[in-house]
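hey so i finally got around to running the thing on that chain from the lab meeting. sorry it took forever, my laptop kept dying and i had to restart like 3 times. anyway pasting the input first so we r on the same page abt which one it is
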Amino acid sequence: QVQLVESGGGLVQAGGSLRLSCAASGRTFSAYTMGWFRQAPGKERELVAGITRSGGTVYANSVKDRFAISRDNAKNTVYLQMNSLKPEDTAVYYCAAKLGAIQGKYDAWGQGTQVTVSS
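ok and heres what got predicted. didnt touch it at all, straight out
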C-alpha cells in the first residue's frame, strides 16, 4: 500500500499563496487517484481537489479558480497550489490515495499539514 507524506503547510496572510506537496512511496503511484482533503476545527473533512491517474481533476466549489492540483509521476508527488488564500482556508490538509474515481473511499492517508491563513 502506498504511504504518503505531506509538506508545505504554514502561516500565510490572506491573499497569499502556498504550495503543498505529497510524496508517495511505492512503484505504483501513477496508478492511483490522488486527493487533497482538509478539516477545520469543528467541521467535517472535505474533499478540496482530486486528480485521476490520467490527469482529470475535480475541485470543491469553494476553491475553484484559486487552487490547482497536479501530479508528477516521475517524482511520485502530488501538489496543491493554493492562491488567493482566505482565512476560511485555514485547516489541516491531508493527501490521500485510492484506485478509481475521485469520489469514494480513500485507502491511504498522510499525516496532514497545517495551513493557517491570517486576516
